[in-house]
């Protein structure tokens, strides 16, 4: 299990982030500074990827990012108005808040990685493409085929060892059937 990120680590990261990146919306700076100065709120903040899946999360972008400047997600509602998000943050300081930051080389930034947690709201198949599913299906089918083939061949060998013609014929038919359907 992933260890929780300390409030001090979150605070240090936000301070570093604000000193190194210019944000697309100045209100985003205000929100992050507000979070910095409220211990209870900071303890309920979690940095994640894909905050759009979280029940309450926002995405903040620096000028070096191609992402939308600001988005706040609360359940099924989405707004790009930082003032509405700020109001919600002030009124719900004890509710978990998930933040995704979008900036240049975010995936390679060790400081960001240190405060990131796994997003518990990502769908199970979020990172699986249709191509991956197809490959997995083919592997599964091949594995089942190989197992059935091995089992039939073992049963044929047993029937031969025991000179049991009826079982031998039964397993040979099974082998032909398997080869004609999956072979």
TrEMBL record:
Q: Which domain of life is it from?
A: Bacteria
Looking at the UniProt entry, the stretches that span the membrane are: none
Domain IDEAL, chain residue ranges per copy: 139-175
UniProt cross-references to InterPro entries, sorted A to Z: IDEAL_dom, UPF0302, UPF0302_N, UPF0302_N_sf, Virus_scaffolding_prot_C
Alphabetized HAMAP family for the sequence: UPF0302 (MF_00760)
Please give the family membership noted in the entry: Belongs to the UPF0302 family.
Q: What is this protein called?
A: UPF0302 protein ACFQU8_13610
